[in-house]
Amino acid sequence: MDSELIQQIRYQARDLLESGTVKGVIGYERASDGLTARPFFAYEPAAVERLIFDETCSHNLARYLVDKKNEKMAVVVKPCDSRAINLLLNEEQIKRDMVFVIGVTCPGVVETSWNHKDEELQARCKTCQLVEPPVYDFLANGEAVERPQGEPYLDVQQMETKPITERKAFWSEQFDRCIRCYACRQVCPGCYCPECFVEQLNPLWVGIRIAPKENELWQIMRAFHLAGRCIGCDECERVCPVDIPLSLLNRKLEKEVKELFDFQAGLNPEEQPPLATFKKEEKLGFEE
Amino acid sequence: MGLENPFVPYLATLKSAVDLTPDVKLLGVELENSAEKASFDYKPGQFALLSAFGEGEAPFGIVSLSRHGDGLEFAVRRIGTVTNALHELELGDVLGVRGPFGNYFPLEDYVGKNMVIIGGGIGMAPLRPVINQILEQRDNYQDLLIINGARTPQDLVFAPEFKTWMEAPRTKLELTVDRGDEHWGERVALVPDVVKEVAPSPDNAIAITCGPPIMIHYTLIVLKELGFKDNQIVTTLEAKMKCGLGKCARCNVGDKYVCQDGPVFTLEQISQFLEQP
Amino acid sequence: MNLFISRDELIRWLDQLLRERILAAPVQVQGLTLFQPISKVEEVTLDFGNTTLSPKEWFLPPTETLFSMQGNDGHPQLVPSTIEKDAVIFGLRPCDAKGIALMDGPFLREPGDALYQERRARTSLIGLSCRQVQPECFCTSVGSAPNDSSHVDILLTEIENGYIVQVITEKGKALLPEGLTESKEELPAPPELQAVPTKEVTQAVREFFDNPYWEQLADRCLHCNICAYVCPTCYCFDVRDYPNKGNPERVRSWDSCQSTGFTRIAGGYDPRAAKGARLRQRFSHKLLYFPEEFQDIACVGCGRCVKSCPVNIDIREVMSDLQQLEAKSGS
After folding, report:
1. Number of domains chain C is built from
2. What is the CATH code of the structural domain delimited by B107-236?
3. Nearest-angstrom CA–CA distance, C228 and C234
4. What ipTM does this complex have?
5. What's the rounded mean pLDDT across residues B52-69?
6. Which end is more exposed in chain C, N or C (fewer Cβ atoms within 10 Å of the end residue's Cβ)?
7. C123 phi, psi to nearest 5 deg
8. Are B80 and C264 inside 8 Å of each other by CB?
9. pLDDT category of residue A225 using cuts at 50, 70 and 90
10. Chain B hits for C106, Cβ within 8 Å
11. With an 8 Å Cβ cutoff, are A202 and B56 in contact?
C-alpha cells in the first residue's frame, strides 16, 4: 500500500468536504474480507479516514457519477476510469463543473474477487499506455512504478486467425452460461440508458428468455452499442458471475474502431466518437 | 399433472366493447367453458388478469353488474402494451381471464351505514359495482353520496348510468370536472374541494375512494379534517403484477401482497404498512 | 443405521441413475462449478466448496414456458407445459437443500405452482455434507449446518475410501442401490463456522425500516441481479408473452426486485424508484416478510451473494449493522 498516495487522497477529500465544495467523495474502502476493496461514499470529513488506494482498487467509480449527477461529487479515478469521465462529458451525461476529479497515478491493479487477490497484474494493466489520467482536478502522485508495456490485442489477433466456425462455437459456449444478470450493463459507465433495448416490448428485440439465442443477441448488441465508446476498464468482465470473457469481445470492436478511425474513446472529451458522427466527406464505399 | 396450472387462463370471447371515454373502453367478456362460466363468481373489489395472448397479461378490476362468467366487464384504459392490445381486439376475438383474485369491499359489514363513494377518472370503475350492489339492496344502507370527478366531461366514465344513480332513493350524485367545456353546466372543481364543499358527516359513515394517487392524497386529508377515522376510509391499491398468485414477489407493499391481501385496504391498514404505496 | 458406499459403488450407482432419469451434478465448467445434467459419471466433480449457482434452477428454471396457445382454426387451446422426466440432484450441500425447502413455502401454498410442484415430486435429492467450510459460509447462524440432513432424501458424508450414507426419506430408500453394507464408522463431527448474529434481525428490519442506512448502502449497489440469481432462496420472476408466429407462448424468467423498473406500472409511476427502497426490499423480504409468514429467515448462509456481489454488499455485515443501529442511532 502506498501510504503517501492515500494521504494525498484523504487530504484532498477532507478539504473538499470541509469546504462544502462537494456533497460527497466517491472512493475506495476496505471490503468485508479485509483484503480487497469496495466503493465507498464519504459524506463527512471524518469518513475520509476510511479511504484507501491499492492494487485491489479495480472498480471504475466514474460509473456512479451518472446516479449522482444532480449533486457535485468528487471521485477517485485511475487513468482508465477517468476515460469514462471524458466519455460521460462528451455524451453530455454529466457536467464538468459537477465533478471534482481526484486522479491517481496507478501502478496497475490485480485480479480480485471476494477474499481473493492475485499476485499478477490484470491483463489490461499490462498493456495500459496511460501514466496519468487524461482528466483530473487534483493528481495524487504515487510511487513511480514501472508497468510492463505489453502488446495490446494479442488475444484478439489470435482469435481473428481462427475460422468463423470455431469462433462461433467458442462464443456460443461462453454465452450459454449467461444468466442475464445484467451486471455487465449495470457496472458499465457507458450503459446509462434509462430504458435498455433489452427491456423494450415494442419492438421486442430480445425478450426475457434466458436461453442461448437470446443471450447471444443480448451480448452482441451490447458490444455493438459500446463500439467506439468502450473505454476498456474491463469491469464487465470482472463482475460477470459466470466468467464470460467480455473484455475479449469489447476489445475486438475497440481494435476495429482504432484501425478504421484511429480513435479511442475517453482520451479527449472534445473528440467526437466516430459512430456518433457523420462527415459528408466520408466514403460510403459505393460511389466510385 | 397433479395440479391445475394456475397460470393458465380461462379462454373467453370479447362480446362487447363500448367507448366510455376517449381512452377508456368497457370490454364485455364471456368465458367459453360453461362450467367455468357458471362457477366464476366475484365480489366488488376483486380483480382479474386479462390476457391479450402474444402481448401479455395485466390486472383489471372487475366492474360488471353480472357476477358470473357470462357477462364480465372491465374498464380498460389504453396506456401500455397490454391495454393497447386489448383495445385493438375485435368482437369475437379470444382473450384470457384469470381470477377472481384478491379481497373485496366488505359491503355486508357496512349494512346500516351512510355510504360516501368518491371516484376520480378511471377510479370510478371499481366503484361502479359497489354503487350497484348498494342500489340493489337499497334498504340495507342509509344515505348514499356519490362524488364523481374527471379531468373533462368526456372522461366521466359511467355517464349513461348517472340518471339511474340520481333517481335512486336517499341518493345524491355530485359531479365535477377539472376543466369544463361549452356544454358543461355543473361545477368545475377538484374532487377533494368538492368533498370539502359537500362535507359529508363521518357519523356512522364509510367512505370508499378510488382514483389517481394525487386525488386520493388530498381527498384523504379532507376526509380526516371532516372527522373520518382511518378505519372508516377504504381504498384500492394498484401495483405492477405478474402472477396474481402471491408467488412472483412483485406486487408487495411492505409485507402485504396487493394480489392476495388487497387490493382493498382501509386507511388504518395502509397507515400501518412499512412501505407507503 | 447408516450405510457405507465405496467410490466404485458410487460411480456404478450414479451410472445407473443417469440412465433412468435426469441426473444433475456438480460439473467443472471453465473454472466454475455448476450443476448440470450429466451423461457420463466422469463429468462429476466432488472437489468443490459450493457451486456458483444454486440448484434452485432445477425447480424454478431461469426460463420456462408456462403454456402455449395452439390451434389457429378458430378453436384455440391453451396447452400447459409438462415435466417429462424424473430427476436426481446429486451433490447438493445442506444449505442448498434447505433453500429448496424454503421455496416450497410460497410455491406450494394455495394455489400451488403446478410446474414447481411436479418437479419437486419427481426430483430426488442426494446431498453431500461439508467436511470443510468456506470463508463466506455461515449456515449455522441461519438454521442449517454442514451436516444437516433435514431436507434431502439421502445424505452422503465423505470419509476415507467412500461415503457414509444416511437414508432420510422413503424416496431416498427407493433410490439406493442393492448390497450396501452397514457403515463401520461414525459420522465425523462437522467443521466449525463463524457465527453471525441473527437473533434480533427480523425486529431490527422492522424497527429501522425508514432509516437512512438503506439509501446509504444503496450508493454502491449496482442494481444488477447477481445476488438474487445466485441465491438459493430468491424466487422473483417475470412473465411475458411471445407472439411466436401465431402460436403465442407465455414464458416466465428469473427477475430480481433490484432491477430498475421492477415495480414500474404502465403510465410511469414507480413506487420503488429510489435505489435505497429497492435494496431494502430484498433484505426486508428475506429477513422480515418471509419469516413472518413462514417462520424462517429466507437465507441459508451459503455466502454466494457475499462472494459474487461486485461491490461487496455483504448480508452478514447488513444483518450485523441493522442489529446495531440502535447503538449508533441515526448513523
Report:
1. 2
2. 3.40.50.80
3. 5
4. 0.94
5. 92
6. N
7. -115, 135
8. no
9. very high
10. 246-247, 249
11. no
